[in-house]
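Hey, can you fold this one?
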Amino acid sequence: MSDEWSLSVARILIAEDDDNVRRFVSAALIMSGHEIEEAEDGGLAAEIMIEQEGNFDLLLSDIKMPVMDGIALALEVGAKFPDVPILLMTGFADQRERASGLDALIYDVIAKPFSLADLLAKVDAALVGAPIEILSLSRQEINRTG
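Sure. Predicted structure:
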């Protein structure tokens, strides 16, 4: 790995309503040396972000959640804390399409289910602001199932 990809400890806020996914993502990022805050929904994540004055290196949020979804959360965080990169997750193609209009606001959308390696690579890329590799949805499906 080049020096450009080596990262220091990052503070990451995870907003995910599925307990199992949230625990998996948290454990993976903690094992990678990051500091994690967790929220069960977008409303709680927005409160945490405001309470901590945007003092996070990344917001990693599911799109489809109760109370406040990831799109609304991204809009709020992006407006108040524009320096915080935002990475969204979803298992629903229609939700991914909803996020496509937010290109200037979010770093990328990672499709569920994802592997540990895919998650860590996408988080690392978002933290360093690496250019996004654009793949069509059909190509992503081929890569996932092929």
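The radius of gyration is 14 Å. Let me know if you want another pass with a different chain boundary.
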